Amino acid sequence: MGKIGFLFPLMVLLLLPPFGATLSAGSPNISTDQLALLVLKSHVTYDPRNFLASNWSTSASVCNWIGVTCGSRHQRVTALNFSAMSLTGSFPPHLGNLSFLAWLDIHNNSFQGSLPIELANLRRLKYLNFANNSFSGEFPSWFGSFTQLQSLYLDGNNFTGVIPSTLGNLSKLEILILDYNNLKGPIPAAVGNLSNLKWSSTVGNI
Ligand SMILES: *[C@@H]1O[C@H](CO)[C@@H](O)[C@H](O)[C@H]1NC(C)=O
Ligand SMILES: *[C@@H]1O[C@H](CO)[C@@H](O)[C@H](O)[C@H]1NC(C)=O
Ligand SMILES: *[C@@H]1O[C@H](CO)[C@@H](O)[C@H](O)[C@H]1NC(C)=O
Ligand SMILES: *[C@@H]1O[C@H](CO)[C@@H](O)[C@H](O)[C@H]1NC(C)=O
Ligand SMILES: *[C@@H]1O[C@H](CO)[C@@H](O)[C@H](O)[C@H]1NC(C)=O
Ligand SMILES: *[C@@H]1O[C@H](CO)[C@@H](O)[C@H](O)[C@H]1NC(C)=O
Ligand SMILES: *[C@@H]1O[C@H](CO)[C@@H](O)[C@H](O)[C@H]1NC(C)=O
Ligand SMILES: *[C@@H]1O[C@H](CO)[C@@H](O)[C@H](O)[C@H]1NC(C)=O
Ligand SMILES: *[C@@H]1O[C@H](CO)[C@@H](O)[C@H](O)[C@H]1NC(C)=O
Predict the structure, then answer these.
(1) Residue 59 is part of a domain; what is its CATH number?
(2) Domain residues for 141?
(3) Domain contains 172
(4) Distance, CA 151 to ligand 4 centroid (Å)?
(5) Is 81 in the pocket of ligand 3 (CB under 6 A)?
(6) Tens of pLDDT along 158-194?
(7) pLDDT tens per residue across span 13-30
(8) pTM for the full model?
(9) Which topology term describes how it sits in the membrane (predicted)?
């Protein structure tokens, strides 16, 4: 009994992996961002003006790709702007790895499908504009994770369900445009009460 009590902690120590092995695998960098955008590129099924086909090449830094902006401090992707590029495609879960993303504007394209829950990791988002695409599925309640969000444009898509009350967590929200979807019911009181909200609109829903 006494012997086993002494040996057991020793065995546990010997079975633990060395420090560092788990640390290095868990720190995202600009390579993480490059991979996320290459996966997005592979999910773009139609790019009539060949914006991504030639420009998004691994021979150039991801920070010089068209529509991509990096921050000077951390050398990570901070903004994506693909508005009005006539792109068709869907959003892969890998986009949730763009952990420094603050600005995401893809309005006036034809992105479709539902949004992957991994996007909830984008905690630095301040501006999100998905207007005039063909996204579908229930309005994700995990939008309540975007605590820095100031502007949210989802107008002209096919989102269904109700406007989630988790949006009431977005204390910095100023603009909320949800026109022309298939949403049911009013803006929840918790959202309408947000003290920074200046402009909200839900015309053209059920
Ligand atoms: C990013 O991190 C990986 C390991 O997690 C490393 O292999 C790679 O060289 C790093 N890339 C840059 C550009 O620092
Ligand atoms: C990609 O587009 C950017 C912005 O238009 C341009 O500065 C860059 O030279 C292009 N890169 C390639 C490889 O075509
Ligand atoms: C985003 O791209 C569009 C079209 O290329 C351009 O008109 C607009 O100024 C860009 N916005 C930002 C913030 O860079
Ligand atoms: C998006 O489409 C609307 C309506 O067609 C238009 O007013 C707006 O200028 C477009 N935005 C861009 C960046 O082309
Ligand atoms: C990024 O996200 C994808 C899918 O969510 C995941 O499989 C991948 O391992 C993640 N990490 C890196 C460093 O790319
Ligand atoms: C989306 O399109 C509608 C009508 O085509 C337009 O009124 C609206 O301004 C567009 N939204 C954005 C953010 O460009
Ligand atoms: C929404 O879905 C309907 C039925 O599937 C389709 O006819 C319509 O074009 C879609 N609208 C948008 C903006 O994707
Ligand atoms: C947001 O608020 C809801 C209550 O409306 C709460 O249950 C939830 O945990 C909060 N957090 C997030 C990240 O949505
Ligand atoms: C919203 O504000 C009204 C009026 O100030 C208050 O009566 C109500 O309880 C608030 N609702 C929520 C969900 O915060």
Answers:
(1) 3.80.10.10
(2) 31-201
(3) yes
(4) 17
(5) yes
(6) 999 999 999 999 999 999 999 999 999 899 999 999 9
(7) 444 444 444 444 568 899
(8) 0.87
(9) Single-pass type I membrane protein
- What is the number of domains present in the chain? 1
Q: How far is the C-alpha of 2 from the C-alpha of 199, rounded, in Å?
A: 70
Q: Which tens digits make up the pLDDT trace of 29-45?
A: 999 999 999 999 999 99
Indicate whether residue 66 lines ligand 2 (CB < 6 A). Answer: yes
Count CA atoms closer than 13 A to 162's CA, side-chain side: 9
Q: Which two tokens stand for residue 169?
A: 């967590």
Query: Per the domain annotation, does 150 fall within a domain?
Result: yes
In a domain, 140, yes or no: yes
Query: Measured between alpha carbons, how far is 185 from 165 in angstroms, rounded to an integer?
Result: 12
Q: Which atom of ligand 6 is nearest to the CA of 153?
A: 13
Say what the alpha-carbon torsion angle 71, 69, 27, 152 is, to the nearest 10 degrees: 100
Would you say residue 143 lies in a domain?
yes
Is any ligand 9 atom within 6 A of the Cβ of residue 193?
yes
* High-pLDDT (> 90) share of the chain, %: 84
